[in-house]
Write a structure and sequence with these properties.
The protein is mainly alpha-helical. The chain folds into two domains: 3-42, Arc Repressor Mutant, subunit A (Orthogonal Bundle); 58-196, Tetracycline Repressor, domain 2, CATH 1.10.357.10. The chain is built from eleven helices and no strands. The longest helix is centred in the middle third of the chain and has 30 residues, at 122-151. Residues 1-60 form the HTH tetR-type domain. GO terms for molecular function: DNA-binding transcription factor activity; transcription cis-regulatory region binding.
């Protein structure tokens, strides 16, 4: 049994049980092996979770496309990161608690070099990527938590309609707090701040989707 076979099976099990239901015992049963067979590949459950997160994140997206400047590239990067986290149940929780490893660190170094080439200082690039990554991760954590609550039958919509009419009106006007539009709006606010802090880096017009 190969190490990557275990990781793929663990991600499939994650989709079925969620992070709280994922256990080495259940994974061993799924693979038709005894628990000790898993520890041949992974020292403990956390090491398995780390490897699952790295598999989920996959390869980096590369540099800007032809004619794409920093704002379009960072927008596309953020939307891709969100889609990646949403591709598995509890994906954001998995990634937030994992050790990213050297491959992710190397990808980050390449991304930072890209922003430096586009006119950012290293510190500006670091904070820009960090702010967008943390925003995206936090957004998806909330997004997936709401989905889990809704799946469990916890729907506060009726209570909100009675007690928080202004909030309900805001949602009707601008969409739910975890909608695609809400994510794009928050991302634009961050990118506007990045532009104000990095005036030497040329920017293009905002792109809501990529």
């Amino acid at each position: 049994m190969a190490r990557d076979t275990v990781v793929r099976a663990a991600l499939e099990l994650l989709d079925e049980t969620g992070l709280d239901g994922l256990s080495m015992r259940r994974l061993a049963a799924r693979l038709g092996v005894q628990n000790p067979a898993l520890y041949w590949h992974f020292r403990d459950k956390q090491e398995l979770l780390d490897e699952m997160a790295r598999e989920l994140l996959g390869p980096d997206m590369g540099g800007p496309r032809a004619g794409e400047t920093w704002r379009g590239w960072l927008t596309r990067r953020a939307h891709r990161y969100r889609r990646t986290l949403l591709s598995h149940r509890d994906g954001a929780r998995l990634v937030s608690g994992a050790d990213p490893g050297l491959d992710v660190a190397r990808a980050f170094e390449r991304e930072l070099a890209t922003l430096v080439e586009l006119g950012f200082t290293p510190a500006q690039g670091l904070h820009a990527i960090g702010a967008i990554s943390h925003y995206t991760l936090g957004f998806v954590l909330n997004e997936q938590a709401r989905r889990e609550r809704a799946a469990g039958g916890d729907d506060p919509a009726a209570v909100y309609a009675r007690e928080f009419p202004l909030t309900v009106a805001a949602v009707r006007q601008g969409g739910a707090p975890t909608s695609d539009d809400a994510f794009a709006y928050g991302l634009r606010l961050i990118l506007d701040g990045v532009a104000a802090r990095a005036p030497s880096a040329p920017e293009d017009q905002p792109e809501d989707q990529a």
